[in-house]
Amino acid sequence: MNTRDLAYFSSLVELRNFTVVASRFNVSQPTITVAIQRLENEFGAPLVQRDRAHNKLAITRAGILLYQRAQRILKDLDLAHSEVSRANQSTIQFGMPPIIGTMWFPLIAGQLFSKGLLNYTQTLEVGSDQLLKELESGKIDVALLGSVRPLHEENLDITLLASHPFKAVVSKEHPLADAGHISFEQLARDNFITMTGKFVHPQALKAYSEYAGFKPNVIYSTPTLSLIKGLVRANLGVSLLVDDAVLPSDDVVALTLDDPLPERFNMSLVVRKAFLPNKIQQEFISTLFALKQTVA
C-alpha cells in the first residue's frame, strides 16, 4: 500500500472535493482519483460515493473506518520521519513552560552546565498544552510540564517531580493582606490578573471560582510572571499563582486558600515512550530527575 494514497484519502474525507485535494498536494485531479481506486481495490470495498448530478461526495462506512485508522498511521509515520532524521544527532529537543524556566529550571541548570549538556540543548518555551502536542508529534523528545492534575497519557512516560499548592496573591494594601489564609469566595469582588490561556493557571482559576460560586473578573492576562506580580503590587488586582512563584523581594502577599480542591501545580518530567535516547540525551534526562529532590 502507498501511504501517499492514505494521505490523499484522508484529505478527501476532510475536504470532500477532489480538485481542492489535488491543489493541496500540487498534483493532478486524476492522481487523486487513481489513488482512491487503488485503496478501494486494496480493501475490496467502496470508500467514496460521488453524486455528479449534485456535485456531492459521500464517504461510505468502510471509508470512515479507513479514515480513522489512516489518521493513526499517518501520525505514526510523521513521528517516525522525525525520529529517524534525528537518530544520529546528539541534540536534545527539550521543552518547558516559561514559569518552570523561571522558577525551577535554574536549580538544575548548574548541573547540566557542568556536565556540558546545555551545549546540546535546544529549548522550546511555550505553554504545557502546546508542549504536549510537540511531544506527541516528535518535535521535542523530553519536557518539564505543569498541570493542575497529575498527567496520564498513553504514549508518554510521566514522572511527577513536585506538587505545589496555588495561593491567592494580593498587594500589601489589600484588605485581606494580613489574613494569612482565606476562602476563595472572599475574592469575588476583586479584579483578577492571570496568565494567558496557554498556561495551567487559568484552569486553576476556573476550578477555584466555580467552587466558590462566582465568575472572576479578569482584567488582564499575560504570559509574563513578573508583570503579574508588578500589577498586583500596584493593587490593580489579585492573582492565583503557585506558591513558589512568590518571593519576599516581590513585595506582595501570598495567602493560603482553605478551599478543599485537588488542583495543584504539578511539575512532571515527560518523555515519549517510543523515544530511544542516546548517551547524551539519557544523561540529560537523568539529571532532570534530580529536581524531584530539589523542589519537592
From TrEMBL:
Annotated TM spans: none
Task: Give a yes or no for keyword Transcription regulation in this entry.
Answer: yes
Cellular component GO terms held in the UniProt record: cytosol
InterPro entries the UniProt entry points to? HTH-type_LysR_regulators, LysR_HTH_N, LysR_subst-bd, WH-like_DNA-bd_sf, WH_DNA-bd_sf
Please list the residue ranges annotated as the HTH lysR-type domain: 1-58
Q: Does the keyword DNA-binding apply?
A: yes
List the molecular function annotations (GO) for this entry: DNA binding; DNA-binding transcription factor activity
**Cross-referenced Pfam families, in alphabetical order?**
HTH_1, LysR_substrate
Keyword field: DNA-binding, Transcription, Transcription regulation
According to its UniProt record, which protein family does this protein belong to?
Answer: Belongs to the LysR transcriptional regulatory family.
PANTHER family, sorted: HTH-TYPE TRANSCRIPTIONAL REGULATOR YBHD, HTH-TYPE TRANSCRIPTIONAL REGULATOR YTLI
Instruction: Give the protein's recorded name.
Output: Malolactic regulator
In its UniProt entry, the species of origin is given as Furfurilactobacillus rossiae DSM 15814
What taxonomic ancestry is recorded?
Answer: Bacteria, Bacillati, Bacillota, Bacilli, Lactobacillales
